[in-house]
Write a structure and sequence with these properties.
With 491 residues, the chain is α+β, with helices and mostly antiparallel strands. It folds into three domains: 174 residues, no CATH class; 131 residues, no CATH class; 136 residues, Serine Threonine Protein Phosphatase 5, Tetratricopeptide repeat, CATH 1.25.40.10. Strands 1, 6, 7, 8, 9 and 10 form a six-stranded antiparallel beta sheet that branches. Strands 2-3-4-5 form a four-stranded antiparallel beta sheet, covered by helices on one side. Helix 16 runs antiparallel to helix 17, helix 18 packs antiparallel against helix 19 and helix 19 packs antiparallel against helix 20. The radius of gyration is 25 Å and the shape is globular. The chain starts with a helix and ends in a 6-residue tail after the last helix. The relative contact order is 0.08.
């Protein structure tokens, strides 16, 4: 059972929904349910039928009857590599876009590659997918992905608790002083809107011992996670989730001594924006500007990581200058990361800056595990580094520890199969590989490794079947295509 649930019991928290607030706050609760946050997740959504072709990857998609189907076309136009997924979850309110998720038989949630964009009223590739090689129908929606869209690990629209926290005392004895008032701090908004970069870097790390849904409104955000940013100037970078990140760059915010907060301009209960600039800026110019200040000083612009979405740039500038992107930017940043907003932690900063899995990164992970010995992702990361260092016995020990803590963690089992296979136990590796593909049948690399393990045992028919499945799942997986073509039985 998740740590956040036990925290709730320990501190008497009531994980309340908007229905708990309706008897006394009917108008507010009903208005919030109509906002983007109140409609952030829809289970079993109604989906508009449509099609979309993506020539960069030779993939063609059909959305119909609550399902999304993908196929490719051969030289004669015949369809091959066909995959079909149910649409079980809609992520996003539809104010800007809706991305869909599909639930696998073992409960994993996968992101689907085509999203609905409201401004263009059409289907296009999901953010980050408009490139020749993309995740297609294989990308897992983890709890970390869900955090900013869902009220819990089980997909559900955001409710009052996300901003007001523990309501037990307030429900027992209603009063103004016994429930958190988020007007005191913007950090309740920053928990979701402070992403510094969506592509290619570790933009934040949770503190040791904190799980995804353990943040409670009112606690310092730095007690929950630390943030990192690129060391280069931020001026030209603008992404979908840059609202708070850009606001913090503003002189208005920096000079306000905390008085300029998100709720200064935004009513979170109705999503209506307030004209608040005149509170501080009183001049002939501001009085003459009857149409509002935001149009000039906070212009709407296209996001680099989602070209079909236009957002308000919250970096308040006297004369904003920018060039709208003409394509999604998938160039990974390879420079240094520096702490942002939260105070520096030397160990976490060093881990965020890991680029090459080597002996020094292994030492960093070992140090982190002294703080959080049950941190499964770090145990897996360490195990994978140790495999690269040919410390396979040490890797096996760390990975078995990870599986003891999280038996369904397929990434750990896949790495374990490699570790024991490198030690000469090919039969044991095959057993682990079969367990992996049973747990994550949509993982192309799991099938690839199963095929390579079969090949190592000279079981060529099994190798061919596994490699073909890897290619069906990921048609651009060149290493699987090469391995299949080199099999004796495939010639």
């Amino acid at each position: 059972m998740r740590r956040s649930f036990w925290l709730a019991l320990a501190f008497g928290c009531n994980l309340f929904a908007a229905n708990d607030c309706l008897p006394c706050h009917t108008a507010i609760a009903e208005a919030f349910a109509k906002t983007g946050m109140g409609r952030s997740i829809t289970v079993r959504p109604a989906v508009l039928p449509g099609t979309f072709s993506h020539p960069l990857s030779n993939r063609h998609y059909t959305i119909e009857g609550g399902k999304m189907k993908r196929h490719q076309r051969g030289p004669g136009g015949a369809a091959f590599n066909v995959i079909e997924k149910t649409i079980d979850v809609a992520i996003g309110s539809g104010n800007h876009a809706i991305t869909y998720g599909s639930r696998t038989p073992n409960g994993m949630l996968l992101e689907l590659p085509v999203s609905w964009y409201s401004q263009e009223k059409a289907y296009f590739m999901s953010p980050g997918y408009d490139q020749p090689a993309h995740f297609d129908m294989r990308r897992e929606i983890t709890e970390s992905c869900l955090f900013c869209h869902s009220d819990s690990a089980q997909p559900a629209a955001i409710t009052c608790r996300r901003c007001h926290g523990d309501a037990a005392a307030h429900l027992a004895q209603p009063g103004r002083g016994n429930i958190y008032n988020p007007q005191r701090s913007s950090e309740v908004c920053f928990q979701c809107h402070l992403e510094t970069e969506s592509m290619g870097i570790v933009d934040s790390m949770r503190k040791p011992g904190r799980d995804v849904f353990s943040y409670w409104p009112g606690e310092p955000l730095a007690d929950y996670k630390l943030y990192f940013d690129r060391a280069d100037p931020p001026a030209e970078r603008f992404e979908v989730n840059h609202t708070a990140y850009r606001l913090i760059q503003s002189a208005c915010y920096q000079k306000s001594a905390g008085k300029l907060a998100c709720v200064t301009c935004h009513d979170p209960h109705s999503a209506r924006a307030r004209e608040a600039c005149g509170t501080c800026h009183q001049s002939e110019h501001t009085r003459a500007k009857a149409t509002g200040c935001a149009g000039c000083h906070m212009p709407k612009r296209k996001a680099q990581d989602a070209l079909h979405i236009t957002m308000t740039d919250h970096w308040i500038q006297r004369a904003p200058k920018f060039v709208d992107p003409v394509k999604e930017n998938h160039e990974p940043y390879t420079g240094k990361l520096v702490p942002f907003y939260t105070k520096a932690d030397p160990l976490l900063t060093a881990i965020a800056n890991v680029r090459v899995p080597d002996a020094s990164s292994a030492r960093l992970y070992e140090q982190y595990l002294q703080r959080a010995p049950k941190d499964v992702p770090t145990l897996i990361a360490l195990g994978k580094v140790l495999i690269r260092l040919d410390r396979d016995r040490d890797a096996e020990a760390r990975l078995r520890r990870a599986l003891a803590l999280a038996p369904r963690e397929a990434e750990a089992r896949l790495a374990l199969a490699v570790a024991i296979g490198k030690q000469g136990d090919i039969d044991g590796a095959l057993r682990e590989m079969k367990a992996v593909v049973a747990a994550v049948p949509d993982d192309s690399y799991a099938w690839l490794n199963l095929g390579l393990t079969h090949r190592g045992l000279q079981q060529f028919s099994g190798a061919a079947a596994a490699l073909r499945e890897a290619i069906r799942l990921q048609p651009d997986l060149a290493v699987a295509q090469q391995a299949l073509s080199s099999l004796p039985a495939a010639k």
